[in-house]
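Incident log, support desk, overnight shift.

02:14 A customer reports that sequence design results differ from what the structure should imply. Their input is reproduced verbatim below. On-call engineer (initials T.W.) acknowledged and began investigating.
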């Protein structure tokens, strides 16, 4: 079993004598006020500096400060030259580089690759305050400023680009960001443990080039360690004859998988037995960057193998050649214990933006300033989402006392607190204290999801801890209401009707967002999402308990258009379901291929990496590519918009579905010429008596609700991938796929989901 050192057990660095700063300094003047002559560590971030535990630079900065280091912040520097990167002088130990809470490319561009003009993580919501591929640009400028200073990469942008990866914006496979940035080391995932280790070792005078075996890190090497055995990836999951590479070190046969893995259409969970090779003394060689450049099937194979090696207790290190050098990716970081999580979230955060921003609003902060992150990680494994690849599949929980203490702190520190806690959640609202009931199985399991295609029988689904937390939180003095804004995993919730009752009775502000994502089984299987039967069961419970509570409350389902494997007919059937249920999308989001997730490998390879991929006799996957095809899939979600009717009529005719055009109840779009007969309000789809409205967007995009102008309370709940709001007092669209505010709505930050900077 892999051992680790508790992050609280390191001896403090000598600069501990300065004590915690009110804010981590962002200027020389602030350093002088603190009595500092220099910084030990400088964090360069693409976000505005908010000293709140939902912002990565604050979490890692305060964590390092608690270890005794003097930490400075360079926030959203002018990147055209090196001067801004010299504002705090040369750090004694290293520069920590992060693009911010979001990937800089997703933050900057829509799913159609069009630039945005706003940024929820910037004061005044101003766009253009960070460069494209911010990690690369910031690293270059730091090297120009102080060539000999080590550079440590981190955050979600670096984490998801730690290997050779498909880049949607350039439509090609790019090298590891570590290679391109020419940095010294990359930290991936929740990297507090690795970060603290690196900082203390540097402070003791160790060379960063010697730090090659730290879990949760990646480094570039001239050659791989000679004391470890090499296992070629083709021996784990052979893609075809073209990939057979005999390996003299390998003595075992290929790992066993489910028997139906290849033959059945629906993808099966990967059931790989623990390797007889000691994970401490062996590593897996992935195909080189150069081989992946023009071989999509090989890319799908590499992605599949990478996803097999994600268990922090049994995964093996990965190696991938880039030119003449070897990219060495160590095993994933060991999750923080509850005591360590309490330590991190109990640090002295000011919980407000840095005073230098004055009265300028930072939308991401406005959304989450009264929210509490109760856990990290997600064992859902949805193929379109990168949370699991970043935060891991094992849930890291805070204690109930730590969470309640933070709520008390919010009452004291957050200006204008109205008594409403806007969220108790994380990547998912209801995975708190859930996990594998068999510790031995958990340490050896390689399943990408604990809930697909069905909930694992070893998964503890008892929501009692979450229920107890909700009850105690709302009983705290000064707390009027606790809203649950993180997405609810409804297939888990229906395993605990008591939880659904508690949620619906006390913690829904009229609207609750959930994520069916689609209605068709083939697409849902590729998404690794449950069928609509689970949605229907949850809907029954939701409506039952809402009625018992005497409340009119509504579910807000959200969906994804143009997901890999989703055909035109699948989208048509989804549109028919929406119409039958009287839902309308105001603004919709096409699938956004973010780095490293399984669905991105599907998009690029047009193959299914959830199954063993082959060169021959493989099932090619339909992928909606090109502007017209993706526009058509969005149009199906907005079947009610007259602007989409010509495109939909043309598509329905070509599909042989002409009977769905007309004025009959079962038709999807009206006959040609109907547009001229509509009122302006009908053409806009803004009729007072219109159908239930919702919007869809990418899960990694912000989704911020606009506070009520008078009370300061959040306006109704807002969905992320497709939101449904009912008739009568229904809100209109909140945020679009591109993250632009719509009709009073604002972007919601990745906040509780992806708050990592160099961690």
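02:41 Re-run completed on a clean worker. Output:
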């Amino acid at each position: 079993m892999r051992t680790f050192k508790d992050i609280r057990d390191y001896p403090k660095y000598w600069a501990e004598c300065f004590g915690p700063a009110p804010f981590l300094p962002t200027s020389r003047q602030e350093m002088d006020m603190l009595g500092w002559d220099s910084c030990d560590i400088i964090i360069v971030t693409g976000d505005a500096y908010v000293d709140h535990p939902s912002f990565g630079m604050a979490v890692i900065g305060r964590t390092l400060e608690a270890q005794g280091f003097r930490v400075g912040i360079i926030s959203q520097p002018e990147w055209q030259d090196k001067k801004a990167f010299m504002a705090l002088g040369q750090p004694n130990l290293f520069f920590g580089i992060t693009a911010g809470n979001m990937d800089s490319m997703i933050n900057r561009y829509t799913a159609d690759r069009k630039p945005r003009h706003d940024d929820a993580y910037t004061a005044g919501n101003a766009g253009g305050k960070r460069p494209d591929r911010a990690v690369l640009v910031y690293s270059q400028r730091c090297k120009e400023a102080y060539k000999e200073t080590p550079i440590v990469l981190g955050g979600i942008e670096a984490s998801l680009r730690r290997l050779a990866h498909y880049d949607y914006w350039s439509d090609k496979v790019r090298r590891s960001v570590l290679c391109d940035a020419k940095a010294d080391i990359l930290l991936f995932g929740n990297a507090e443990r690795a970060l603290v280790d690196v900082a203390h070792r540097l402070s003791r005078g160790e060379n960063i080039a010697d730090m090659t075996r730290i879990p949760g890190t990646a480094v570039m090497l001239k050659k791989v360690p000679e004391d470890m055995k090499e296992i070629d990836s083709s021996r784990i999951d052979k893609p075809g004859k073209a990939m057979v590479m005999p390996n003299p070190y390998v003595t075992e046969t290929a790992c066993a998988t489910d028997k139906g893995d290849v033959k059945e259409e629906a993808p099966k969970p990967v059931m790989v037995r623990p390797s007889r090779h000691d994970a401490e003394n062996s590593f897996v060689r992935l195909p080189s960057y150069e081989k992946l450049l023009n071989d999509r099937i090989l890319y799908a194979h590499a992605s599949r193998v990478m996803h097999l090696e994600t268990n922090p207790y049994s995964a093996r290190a990965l190696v991938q050649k880039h030119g003449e050098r070897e990219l060495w990716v160590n095993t994933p970081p060991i999750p923080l214990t509850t005591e360590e999580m309490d330590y991190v979230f109990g640090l002295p955060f000011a919980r407000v933006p840095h005073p230098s921003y004055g009265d300028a609003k930072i939308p991401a902060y406005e959304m989450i300033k009264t929210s509490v992150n109760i856990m990290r990680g997600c064992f859902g494994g949805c193929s379109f989402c990168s949370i699991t690849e970043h935060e891991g599949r094992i849930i890291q929980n805070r204690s109930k006392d730590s969470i309640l203490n933070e709520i008390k702190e919010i009452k004291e520190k957050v200006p204008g607190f109205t008594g409403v806690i806007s969220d108790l959640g994380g990547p998912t609202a209801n995975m708190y204290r859930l996990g594998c009931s068999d510790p031995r199985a958990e340490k050896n399991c390689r399943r990408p999801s604990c809930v697909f295609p069905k909930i694992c029988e070893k998964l503890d689904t008892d929501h009692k801890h979450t229920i107890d937390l909700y009850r105690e939180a709302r009983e705290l003095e000064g707390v009027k209401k606790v809203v649950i804004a993180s997405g609810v995993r409804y297939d888990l919730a229906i395993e605990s009707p008591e939880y659904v009752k508690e949620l619906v009775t006390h913690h829904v502000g009229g609207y609750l967002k959930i994520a069916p994502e689609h209605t068709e089984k083939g697409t849902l299987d590729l998404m690794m999402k449950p069928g609509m039967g689970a949605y229907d069961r949850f809907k029954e419970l939701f409506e039952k308990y809402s009625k018992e509570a005497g409340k009119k409350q509504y579910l807000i389902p959200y969906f994804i258009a143009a997901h890999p494997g989703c055909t035109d007919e699948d989208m048509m059937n989804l549109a028919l379901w929406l119409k039958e249920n009287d839902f309308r999308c105001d603004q919709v989001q096409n699938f956004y291929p973010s780095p490293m997730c399984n669905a991105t490998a599907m998009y690029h390879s047009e193959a299914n990496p959830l199954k063993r991929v082959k060169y021959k006799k493989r099932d090619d996957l339909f992928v909606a590519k090109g502007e017209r095809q993706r526009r058509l899939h969005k149009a199906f979600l907005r079947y009610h918009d007259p602007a989409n009717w010509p495109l939909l009529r043309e598509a329905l005719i070509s599909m042989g579905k002409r009977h769905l055009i007309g004025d009959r109840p079962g038709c999807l779009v009206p006959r040609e010429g109907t547009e001229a007969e509509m009122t302006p309000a009908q053409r806009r789809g803004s009729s007072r008596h219109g159908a239930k409205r919702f919007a869809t967007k990418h899960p990694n995009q912000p989704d911020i609700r606009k506070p009520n102008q008078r009370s300061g309370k959040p306006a109704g709940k807002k969905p992320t991938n497709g939101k449904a709001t009912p008739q009568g007092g229904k809100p209109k669209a909140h945020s679009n796929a591109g993250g632009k505010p719509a009709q009073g709505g604002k972007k919601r930050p990745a906040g509780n989901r992806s708050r990592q900077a160099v961690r």
